[in-house]
Amino acid sequence: MTISSTRAPGVLHLPTTNRLMSRLAERFQQFHLDAGTRGSDAPLGRILLFCGPGCSTALVADHLGAALASGNSVVVGFVEEPSSSLSFFLEALAQALPTKTFECLTTTAGPWNLLLPDIYVVAVLTALHIVVADDSYRHGATSPGQGSTADLLSLYTTTRILTKEATS
């Protein structure tokens, strides 16, 4: 998948109306480029990404970029109203991607009260930590938009182990 601010068939179009959106689109593109070089990893599948209070636009965009670039489908929900820049970014993603690939929850009950099938891998993102399934990681050491794309991509993939029967 290619990300661009110009219109072309087969390209994910993210608006680059301001500097922040341009940086987010560039970072998103980097995740997709880096994911293409990770041949032995498989996506986790369907990810439900809950974002807690204090998650910046760049932090959420980084995790969405890594999860989507890894080949997962992502449903994202927020415990508090996203900022206007994050809302704009999420709306652009929702318009650019099919609903089966990306969806943003809007519920008056709040995302923490949802009953979902067991097919989802739950990820909880806070300003300092990410918990994917049962594994917790501290991500506050690097600034969003500056950290290793490989490290973030590895959070949303599983190592594919290929076995071959021994022949005599």
Kindly describe this structure:
This protein is an alpha/beta fold. It has one domain. It is built from four helices and ten strands, in the order ββαββαβαββββαβ. It has a six-stranded mixed β-sheet, with helices on one face. The chain has a two-stranded parallel ribbon with strand order 1-2. β7 (120-125) and β8 (129-132) form a beta hairpin. The longest helix has 17 residues, at 19-35. The chain is globular, with a radius of gyration of 16 Å.
Count of the domains: 1
* Structural classification: alpha/beta
C-alpha geometry: globular
Gyration radius, rounded: 16 Å
Helix content: 25-40%
H/E series, N to C? EEHEEHEHEEEEHE
What's the number of helices?
A: 4
Mean pLDDT: 77
Q: How many strand segments?
A: 10
Q: List the quaternary state of the chains.
A: single chain
Question: What is the strand content?
Answer: 15-25%
Question: Features of this protein?
Answer:
globular, disordered N terminus, two-stranded parallel ribbon, alpha/beta, 4 helices, six-stranded mixed sheet, 30% helix, 168 residues
Topology:
Elements: E1 2-4, E2 11-13, H1 19-35, E3 41-43, E4 46-51, H2 57-69, E5 73-78, H3 84-96, E6 102-104, E7 120-125, E8 129-132, E9 135-138, H4 149-155, E10 157-159
Parallel strand pairs: 1-2, 4-5, 4-7, 5-6
Antiparallel strand pairs: 3-10, 7-8, 8-9
